[in-house]
Amino acid sequence: CCLLLALALFVPWHAASRKCDLQGLWRNELGSNMTILAMNTAGTFSGFYHTVLAATNKQILESPLQGVQQHPGAKTHPTFGFTVQWQFSDSITAFVGQCFVDHRGKETLETTWLLREEVLSHKDTWKATRVGTSIFNRIK
Length: 140
Hints:
Strands 1-2-3-4-5-6-7-8 form an eight-stranded antiparallel β-barrel. The protein contains one helix and eight strands. The chain starts with a helix and ends with a strand. It has 140 residues and is mainly beta. It has one domain (24-138): Lipocalin. The longest helix is centred in the first third of the chain and has 16 residues, at 2-17.
């Protein structure tokens, strides 16, 4: 009885105290996939993003990403930012977010993004930037 109670109390605490690790394969709510490669000691990382949505007639290609995590290894729920240089369009997206681990140990990246596309003149700059949010769940 006491052993079961101790296990029941320990498992949620242990999962919730687990540090979030950005490295791995992630998928957002729309089905886009992101791979984050190993982070260096300064907190910088690279990877690849494959979106399933794009406002283009061109073939959607996997696109490189570059990012940084604030205080690598020191925080349980770290903040981070990265940019994606789209290989199939004249746009770039900047993401900022935070990594969370729930009481079951499930890791989630909650992000806000800005997408800036090229426009032909200064008078069209008003329509060049979009803002949104994405939530990524760990696949691997």
